[in-house]
Amino acid sequence: MKGGIQGLKVSQVSFILVGLVCVTVLTLAWTKTTLLSPFIPTQGRALQLDLDEAGPKELLEGDNNSTQTQKKQVNSPGSSETPLAVDRGNIENVTTTHKEETPSSVIERTGSDEFSEGKNRSKQTEIVPESSSTVESPIKREQRGNLSDTTGNKETPSTVQRLGSQELSRGQNKSEKAEFVPEVTKEQTRNLSATTGNKDCNYAKGKWVIDESLPLYSGFGCKQWLSSMWACRLTQRNDFEYEKLRWQPKDCKMDAFTGANFLQRMKDKTLAFIGDSLGRQQFQSLMCMVTGGEERHDVLDVGYEYGLVKARGAVRPDGWAYRFPITNTTILYYWSASLCDLEPIDPSNPKTTDFAMHLDRPPAFLRTFLPRFNVLVLNTGHHWNRGKLQANRWVMYVNGAPNTNRKIADIFGARNLTVHSIAKWVNEQLPLYPGLKAFIRTMSPRHFFNGDWNTGGTCDNTTPLSGGKEVVKDDSSDPLTAGAVSGTSVELLDITALSQLRDEGHISRYSIKATPGMQDCLHWCLPGIPDTWNEVLFARL
User: Fold this and answer.
1) Angle in degrees, 0-180, between the axes of helices 529-540 and 277-291, rounded to the nearest 10
2) What is the CA angle 320-292-490, rounded to 5?
3) DSSP for residue 403
4) N or C: which end of the chain has fewer CB atoms below 10 A?
5) CB neighbours of 141 closer than 8 A, spacing ≥ 6?
6) Which residues in 220-307 belong to E strands, given as ranges?
7) Shortest CA distance to 110 belongs to which of 91, 93, 126?
8) What is d(CA 224, CA 323) in angstroms, rounded to the nearest whole number?
9) Cα 527 from Cα 242, distance rounded (Å)
10) How would you write 115-183 as a 3-class SS string?
């Protein structure tokens, strides 16, 4: 009898089928044993394959952050060669379709030569364990980009270590090692740990650090704005290490100053300095910083708009005002050494008359032009002594009449009344001008040793930071000014303590004519310390 397949008997076919069933059962049972475990992919390795399919861009950067974007983030605003500091311990969340990686920490460093033709070639990934109590800072979130958290299976850090050690093979983004973001010390950064303009930041607390990119302008130039008596490069002085120091606030971010950034930030605005000769130094410093010390024939002299023109017989006008047409930005200075309103007591005899020094009334110039200002910087201090008052023929007035209060007649009491009065008055004006930002700058320190300005005092030190480099205290070194603005919306531009460390930065005995005489241990060489005051001011705008 013929049957079966191709002539095989039915019994033979049956034996074959039974054999196949047995082999299948044995194979299934065998896979449950440890014999095949080396050949079965683990969960972690299976995840790795899924991530390979996603490609390294999704793995290392997140939804919309390419490596090219990361490169722009790590470069400092001031220099393409100075990247931002990357804190160790930055948590990197890796997004997949149904799985979430939460390694202890991933630090990425991106080399400056790793970007070409849109292909993100990575070099190395370093994984550093992190305590679970670590709080992610805003800087870490910025470095991390837009990586999103997803719900699903969580893999252990060892999974990511295996992941980082193997080559990602899909797409154009092939990595040979891990990606790197250059890590630099805080000494090399412009203080990345706080947001620009953060009111909680104490810019007066920090330290001086060396910065070879300084100064921001040449002391041989800026002749259009800088008085030659303050340009120490034009004198016989031959040590200029003081020009290479930058102020680094503690736990604050201070953007690198550029003229273009300043003008853009001050577009269609007016900044007014009102104060003594130290205020004039700050004004000249800012003009040099904004222009880079270069001649600017496009800048307009608009002093006439503010009555700042030289009167007949005067050595100079009462101030200066310049406008940058490209952004309609105006920077001006008005001389008011005491921040008091001054009026001739006998207008008919201007050459011999005394002047009423109204301690409780702001200068007429400020009262008149305040509506035109967007930023106001006030200062006073070094004219508050008996010699200055007598030389200027100033007579203290309060409430429109000569002062009879002995406490106010004391120089400290008079200055205290004036600074508190003007802070109160400006504060009352602020609601009327919502766009106005007002500062009172603290006193610039003097450094006369072995005497005073008229008794042989000197400041011959030429070694920077010989008395220290850091300010650690929180309180201002000018408590009078700090107390005046306390409780108001007027802000304190605190430069006293940081300037106190820089006694080598004064004009000292140097001059254009190199003639012996009294040393100037009050005013500063430019470029110099007032540049720092303006950098702090810029950070506060």
Assistant:
1) 70
2) 55
3) -
4) N
5) none
6) 245-249, 270-275, 300-301
7) 126
8) 14
9) 9
10) EECCEECCECEEECCCCCCCCCCHHHHHHHCCCCCCCCEEECHHHHHHHHHCCCCCCCCCCCECCECCC
Question: Tens digits of per-residue pLDDT, 28-49?
Answer: 665 555 444 444 444 443 333 3
CA atoms of 315 and 423, how far apart (whole Å)? 31
Question: The pTM is what?
Answer: 0.65
Q: Residues 88-98: pLDDT tens digits?
A: 333 333 333 33
Q: Which residues of 87-120 are buried (b: 16+ CB within 10 A; e: fewer)?
A: bebbbbebbbeebbbebbbbbbbbeeebbeeeeb
Alpha helices in 180-227 (DSSP H): none
- The pLDDT tens digits of the residues spanning 125-181 come to 333 333 333 333 333 333 433 333 333 344 443 433 433 334 333 334 433 333 333
Cα 537 to Cα 439: distance, rounded to the nearest angstrom: 9
Question: Residue 77, by phi and psi: left (phi above 0), alpha (psi -120 to 50) or beta?
Answer: alpha
Mean pLDDT across the chain: 76
Going from the C-alpha of 254 to that of each of 173, 203, 204, the distances in angstroms are 35, 9, 12
Question: How far from chain centre, in Å, is Cα 80?
Answer: 16
Instruction: Compute the average pLDDT of residues 195-221.
Output: 86
Q: How far apart are CA 257 and CA 454, in angstroms?
A: 38
Higher-confidence residue of 277 and 52: namely 277
Phi/psi class of residue 356: alpha, beta or left (left: φ > 0; alpha: ψ in -120 to 50)? beta
The two structure tokens encoding residue 189 = 């950064």
The continuous run of DSSP H or E covering 334 comes out as strand 329-335
| pLDDT (0 to 100) of residue 203 | 95
Structure tokens, 400: 């429109």
Find the mean pLDDT for residues 363-391: 96
The count of other CB atoms within 10 Å of the CB of residue 361 is 23
Distance (Å, whole) CA 84 – CA 255: 12
Instruction: Tokens for 240, please give them.
Output: 């200029």
Helix or strand (DSSP H, E) at 227: none
Torsion angles phi and psi, residue 312, rounded to 5: -60, 125
What amino acid occupies position 430? L
Q: In the numeric block, which tokens belong to residue 373?
A: 């200002």
For 240, half-sphere exposure in the C-beta direction (CA atoms, 13 angstrom radius) is 17
